[in-house]
């Protein structure tokens, strides 16, 4: 399992919960990567996800980063067996 998350607080909260649940259920988290909110360069992040070679990818992203990362992942030749994407909203 690979987890990629924005440093936006609600996205971090959800991703930390995903990592905890995965470890409790015996899943190995091969990559836990946080990126700055507003990131536009996805090349290095995509390369690290590809190198992790995980069967499952959890992505927590928000706003404009969701759109630009989605476009980058669609153009990538790397495909996961399963992907879960979270679009958290700000607030408590």
Could you describe the 3D structure shown?
Helix 3 (64-75) links the parallel strand 3 and strand 4 (82-86). The mean pLDDT is 76. This protein has a single domain (2-86), classed as Response regulator (Rossmann fold, 3-Layer(aba) Sandwich). The chain starts with a strand and ends in a 6-residue tail after the last strand. It is 41% helix and 22% strand. It has three helices and four strands.
The global form is: flat
Tell me the helix content. 40-55%
Unreliable spans are: none
Strand order of the largest sheet: 2-1-3-4
CATH architecture: 3-Layer(aba) Sandwich
Return the average pLDDT rounded to an integer. Answer: 76
Topology-level CATH name: Rossmann fold
| Number of separate structural domains | 1
CATH C-level class: Alpha Beta
Number of strands: 4
Our Rg estimate from Cα atoms comes to 12 Å
Largest sheet: 4 strands, parallel
Which labels suit this protein?
4-stranded parallel sheet, 92 residues, alpha/beta, Rossmann fold
Map the helices and strands:
Elements: E1 2-6, H1 9-24, E2 31-35, H2 43-52, E3 56-60, H3 64-75, E4 82-86
Parallel strand pairs: 1-2, 1-3, 3-4
Care to give the gist of this entry?
The protein has helices spanning 9-24, 43-52, 64-75; strands spanning 2-6, 31-35, 56-60, 82-86.
